What does this fold into?
Amino acid sequence: MFRSVVAGAVAAVLAMASASLAAQVPAEPLSALAPENLAKSRPKAPFDLTGNWFVDTSPGPDAWRFGPPYPKLTAKAQKEFDTGMKLLKEGKVYKDDIGQCWPAGLPLIMTRYWPTAMIQLPTAVYMVSEFMNSFRTIFLDGRQHTDPDVVVRTFNGESIGRWEGDTLVVETRHFRGDHHWMDQGGASIPAGEQLRIVERFRLLPGGKQLEIAYTMTDPEHWEGEWKSTKRFNRVNDTDIKEVVCLPDLNDHLKSTRSKTQVQ
Amino acid sequence: MKKLLIASALVLSVVAPAVAHHSPAAFEAQKTVTLTGVIKEFRWQNPHTWIELYVPNEKGEEVLWAVELTSPTYLVRAGWKSNTLKPGDKVTVVGRPLKSGEPGSAIFTSVTLADGRTLVERAARQGGAK
It folds into this structure.
């Protein structure tokens, strides 16, 4: 009798512990590609981004850059910026991590001189930049950002979008904070783990141009909001291809191994 | 002995700043280097192609130069094919050298083949809705 009481008590405690643990594990959201998610009733999207998009370079050769103007930098970022500018004047390039095959990451991946293929579904927009075939998803299915203690940080971050009138508003967070930069070969401003980017997508009349207004914050590296607006042209005469920074690429490009590169 | 000619000239072709995977800031913006030599290898690949060629220096020593070009997507639109350059071909390549003065590395401007044809690259697409 006593044994069975003890056994029952132990089983009850174990069951409670198990239930408690289960309660701590977040439920997996329904995949954006799950048929039951795709089939859910939603308002019709104001526009469809499906297509190939290429940054509009008509403003000038620096149209891919997000500054100047730059926000007021923190002392930490200013030190990197000043070092990069000093070395640039000496004909050197400071911490060109993209050149060493690290991912460009958001925001720079959007304005490389390579098209980005976008496929829009009711639950998500899938993007593949031809540059290094960098992959990005904007979830539109109402999910929340992942718990920062669980998320795997990435160079393109985690993007969640919602429709506001005729605008798609996308907030991206959970970035990798190393080897991640806001420019390449110029303003050496780091992108940190506190980086948050809000993009406001608008398809311009006629559907041939896409405008994205960027508002970026990263209190570790600059004060307040860093704003920049980019336009992208729809390109219908090309498809993206496999583009990978292979291990032997830089072995044949002496510039990436020269003393002009300062890490 | 073939001479290595370094000339200052206005570079007419616009090199897209971000078409390469690395920053082009290390290369001269306006100075060019003219390299007459023999092709070692021409690699047709993404994110960009490259030419390796042996070029004799002032001492007659063969120096291996790597010349970086844009992606095949744009080269095809300028008339290039994967076999445009073959090992052993004698060519004259014009490019922009490193600002540091280190030999052996340049970013492409043009190539003149043994048959006299000169090829350039098509710049990455420029603005305007298409």
